[in-house]
Amino acid sequence: MQVDGLGVGWAFVAGMVVAFLWYQKGPMAAQWERLTGIGPERSRAARTRNMLQLVVANALTAVGLAVAIGAVSTATGNDSVWLALGVGFVGWLTLSATTLLQHNAFEQKRPLLTAINVGYQLALFVAMSLVIGLL
To answer: What are phi and psi of 131, to 5 degrees?
Structure first.
């Protein structure tokens, strides 16, 4: 099994683009800010730490998806983009979505906030998996 470093790099870029687009000014960001109470003024103090965490998390997600897609591709002999998307979807569903649902339920966060964050994670996993699958 091989992990394509170029695919990991471009998947990371795709993930950063998804994060930028998802939470930029617009309806999604406005809802997220309203539901969390965290606007630009409040987030400014933690911006450097948050961006560093985003970079690390997206890098690890890109590597993890590349390894998972590579392992499933090697095991099945299938290197299609559909397989990559399927692995990404299953990874999102079983690891990311379930974790967010569990934590948000116990923290009594509003369902719309959970939906926004779960939707972001789905977009992230699909975009990264698509890039890995295409390369």
So the answer is: -60, -45
Phi and psi at 111, nearest 5°, equal -55, -35
Comparing CA positions, the residue from 83, 22, 103 lying closest to residue 58 is: 22
Phi-psi region at 108: left, alpha or beta (left = phi > 0; alpha = psi -120 to 50): left
Burial of 7 per CB tally in 10 Å (0-12, 13-18, 19+): buried
Q: Which two tokens stand for residue 57?
A: 């998390």
Token pair for residue 12? 């990371």
Tokens describing residue 7? 């695919």
The residue type found at 7 is: G
Q: Yes or no: say if 73 and 79 are a contact pair by the CB < 8 Å rule.
A: yes
Query: In one letter, which amino acid is 110?
Result: R
pTM (2 d.p.): 0.89
pLDDT (tens digit per residue) in 93-104 = 999 999 999 999
